[in-house]
Amino acid sequence: MNNIFKIKLNSVNNAALFVKKCGEFEEDIDYIHGRYVIDAKSIMGIMSTDLGESAKVEIHTDNIETITKFKEEISLWMEDK
Q1: Which parts form a coiled-coil structure per UniProt (predicted)?
Q2: Suppose 60 and one of 20, 28, 52, 71 were both cysteines; which one would form an S-S bond, judging by CB atoms 3.0 to 4.6 Å apart?
Q3: Helix (H) and strand (E) counts in the chain
Q4: Are 30 and 58 spatial neighbours (Cβ–Cβ below 8 Å)?
Q5: First-to-last C-alpha distance (Å) of the chain
């Protein structure tokens, strides 16, 4: 199963909610914006990017149940549903 998803946050509120959702997972999660890879649990890191642009998010696990739950939690911001 794919563990990389394309998202767009669009606002500070969305960024804060996204970081909160990522914090609910034990796994490492990367927010990939252009050539930068940022810890998705870091609000300061996320805020240092252009929220109006698309980014990728990767959860580091092979557990299909965890990937599915993560995908459901971030579905609000996914571009390719």
Answers
A1: none
A2: 28
A3: 3, 4
A4: yes
A5: 15
